Amino acid sequence: MAFKPSALCGRPDPNPEEGGTLLETSTLTQIRTTACPACGAEVRLVGRLLIGEVYGCGHCAAQLEVASVEPAVLEPFAKVDDGEDERT
Predict the structure, then answer these.
(1) Which listed residue, 2, 31, 62, 75, has the most CB atoms within 10 A of its CB?
(2) Kind and range of the H or E run holding 56
(3) Of 31, 69, 70, which Cα lies nearest the Cα of 51?
């Protein structure tokens, strides 16, 4: 009989080919809500927030940038013009 570490902890062997049961795993997804600064509607922020990340408001279609993570604060997204596209 082969040694199976899962037998020690009482869990089924995760290898179905050897008679174990493949267990599904799930991860917790962080969902936050905050108000759209343009229209006041609730905007759902799903996953890990990063400053500078852009979300869209489902109500007014405004593009919103994460300005703060704790507390979650959105501000209107302002595209930065670096001047490289200008031709003279």
Answers:
(1) 62
(2) strand 54-56
(3) 69
Please tell me the number of Cα atoms within 13 Å of 46 on its side-chain side.
Answer: 6
Residue 83: DSSP 8-state: S
- Tell me the C-alpha distance between 15 and 17, whole Å: 5
Q: Cis (ω within 30 of 0) for the bond into 14?
A: no
Q: Please, are residues 72 and 49 in contact by the beta-carbon 8 Å criterion?
A: yes
Q: What does the pLDDT look like over 50-79, one tens digit per residue? A: 999 999 999 999 999 999 998 899 999 987
Distance of CA 25 to the CA centre of its chain: 17
Q: Where are the beta strands (DSSP E) in 1-88?
A: 31-35, 42-46, 54-56, 63-68, 73-76
pLDDT in tens, 7-49: 445 544 444 454 444 445 455 678 889 999 999 999 999 888 8
